[in-house]
Amino acid sequence: MNIFRLAADLLHLGSIFILIARLRQTKSCAGISLKTQGLYVLVFATRYLDMFISFVSVYNTLMKLFFLASSAYIVFLMLSPLKPTYDKALDTLRVEYLIAGAAAFALLFPHKYTVLEVLWSFSIYLEAVAIMPQLLQMTRTGEADNITSHYVFALGGYRALYIVNWIYRYYTEDKYSDYIAWVAGVVQTVLYGDFFYIYFTRILKGKTFKLPV
Prior knowledge:
Blueprint lengths: L2 H24 L7 H14 L10 H22 L15 H14 L6 H15 L2 H10 L1 E2 L1 H27 L6 H13 L1 H9 L7 E2 L3
Antiparallel strand pairs: 1-2
Helix pairs in contact: 1-3, 1-7, 2-3, 2-5, 4-5, 5-8, 7-8
């Protein structure tokens, strides 16, 4: 594992800790997309089925278990104790289209034509667009609290660092290629483009986060 992969993983972990802390401290899920969080549960559930049939490392297994458990816990918080604070009227993106699109791409362009590899490919394609309900919700309201902004930034930053990791591996490892992850990762990072711009020009200058409506 190189430093870029490790930094990306730590940033991903950090994003989840930020979100859980925000939900528990404010006792509110206002401004958080339940649909995005549900998509992440589906992403991790379909990606990490391999841990039941193969072992890579303790680090790898612990990370998979953490992402599965934490994503399910976030959805539980939003559906149970914090449900009264969830505004369904703002969380309107039709996620069934995202799921159907990811499924179609996974069937047409899988890593390999095996059940686990098709599911892995599906999870990669779906993760690329899973943030869209959250970004749309922020656009609809025109603003977001700073903690939510830090959470979204950490999620986008983790994927951007993975691109650096892939570039590093391409030049340092023989015959390394992963076109599905590369393309999906670039698409995912591009989706954060406007968000990154406003984050750097407002939040890091101590201003309130506001998106164009």
